Amino acid sequence: MSEPLGYPVDLHTHSLRSDGAYEPAEVVRRAAARGVRIQALSDHDTLAGAAEAIVEGERLGVRVIPSTELNTESEWGDVHVLGYFLDPQDPALEERLRWLREHRGRRIELMVEKLNALGYPVRLERVLEIAQGGALGRPHLAQALFEAGHVPAYDAAFSTLISKDSPAYVARVGLTPHEAVRLVREHGGVPSLAHPGTVTDLERLLPQLVEAGLAGMECYYGSHTPEATVRYLRLAAEHDLIPTGGSDFHGRGAHGAPLGGVRVPESTIPRLEARRAKGHSRPEAYHSVAVGTER
Ligand SMILES: [Zn+2]
Ligand SMILES: [Zn+2]
Q1: Ligand nearest to the CA of 246
Q2: 50-63: per-residue pLDDT in tens?
């Protein structure tokens, strides 16, 4: 158990409640063992691990910030929005997150139903097997159609059956980046743009997201080169965004850095908290978080 220590602040981590490999409490234990003292558990589209992580964090001296990461659908590339200081007991927020979780799988289910009705029998079970537990998408469906012999090649599934304007197509449902930022704000959280390197046309999108209420940007991230970090810090300063950062630890394969593996200044936390108190956020949400985490 002589793991080298990491840095004390990690504002981007995942558990089994989304696509990470460990239970929430286990992620906190591993973070604590690495010297992390402030950790955001930021599972995709859910706060389900927060309560368990907070309890374990209290035991081990790790402050756990209830958070989520929202993936969005738009022409801006992979825009992921981290929402900090959200209330796991906010029923209206949970309703919206559940809607997001359901739509990811539901879209593919609907397309399977359409294909079956059109005379291209495909089993949803097989599509799920192909996805191996990952978030379902059309590539998994295309593979199943190919295997079932309905199309001569994988790519043909797209061109004849499941592309936009094809008979079995079902439109994707998801948040735009702007909606994701507003969702976090509307529920009293503080939104930060995750790993900006995956965004298309960042310099054009940023002012729009700032207008929607964006408060931070993940300038410190494992895969950023030093030059990229400097560029993001400059952009953050230009747009009055708080530089945030984290490991994006998943515990699976090469995805993300080790827990506490990215240096994030401790002053980030009070700066984020100050943004929660002003702007669009509702101060009462803060109190319900505090009450909700008391035993
Ligand atoms: Zn992400
Ligand atoms: Zn992530």
Answers
A1: 2
A2: 999 999 999 999 99
All domains of the chain in start order, with CATH: 9-90+189-292 (3.20.20.140), 106-186 (1.10.150.650)
* Ligand 2: centre distance to CA 74 (Å): 18
* Residues belonging to the chain: 295
What is the 8-class DSSP label of residue 153? S
Residue with tokens 């309703």: 95
Q: For residue 289, how far is its CA from the centre of ligand 1 (angstroms)?
A: 24
CA distance 141 to 136: 9
pLDDT score recorded for residue 291: 35
pLDDT band at residue 202 under the 50/70/90 scheme: very high
Phi-psi region of 141 (alpha: psi -120 to 50; beta: other; left: phi over 0): alpha
Ligand nearest to the CA of 195: 1
Residues near ion ligand 1 (Cβ under 5 Å): 80, 194
- What's the farthest any 2 CA atoms get from each other in the chain? 60
Using one digit for the tens of pLDDT, what is the confidence trace for 27-52? 999 999 999 999 999 998 899 999 99
Q: How far is the CA of 218 from the centre of ligand 1 (A)?
A: 10
Distance 20 CA to ligand 2 centre (A): 9
Tens-place pLDDT, residues 85-110: 999 999 999 999 988 888 878 888 99
